[in-house]
Design brief:
By secondary structure, the protein is mainly alpha-helical. It is 61% helix and 0% strand. Helix 1 runs antiparallel to helix 7, helix 1 runs antiparallel to helix 8 and helix 4 packs antiparallel against helix 7. It is elongated and about 50 Å long. The relative contact order is 0.20.
Length: 197
Amino acid sequence: MSVLLVSSSGQPLSDSQRLFSIAVSRVQHLHLLAQRIFSDFESSLQTEEQRQLNKIFLQDFCNSDYIISPIDKHETQRSSVLKLLSISYRLVESWEFPSRSLAVGSAPRNQISPKLTELKTGIHLLIRANQDGAEIFPDNSALQLAPYGNYYQSLGAEESLRRTYELLACFKKDMHKVETYLTVAKCRLSPEANCTL
């Protein structure tokens, strides 16, 4: 059975539009999953623990903060489709290794790594389709970020709780960024779109 996606005007979607629709749908699912896992984790904490973790997290940074990305909605709106795709790719790529530790536990967590891999592949296809011969990753190397410091060392219960909170909060934040960037990029390629954030 073949499925034909159509736009709101009734016209068939191009391959690029179809790929964007799939990528946006996948990242929306990952973002919702991240929100749910983070909320479940927060609700398992005592009120005082949660307050302390919120304070600590506000002082810390996510590993992906080293990926240069738009700082606000205006800069996002001005960024090219290729730039938004490139940043999205790097953000997703930065979670390949850390996502394995998110997979511990509940069934929804086990979905994260395979869905990230699918999303990364889809974004890569979109980059290739929108490149026009430009080399998006000129050094041909993967983004080298430290894998969340000493997250993977054996830690005491309190430190482990803090690290889990950090990891989940960062994952949620990064999936929100990717969702925003892909949505804006998709909108830019749609002839009938109003792309305001």
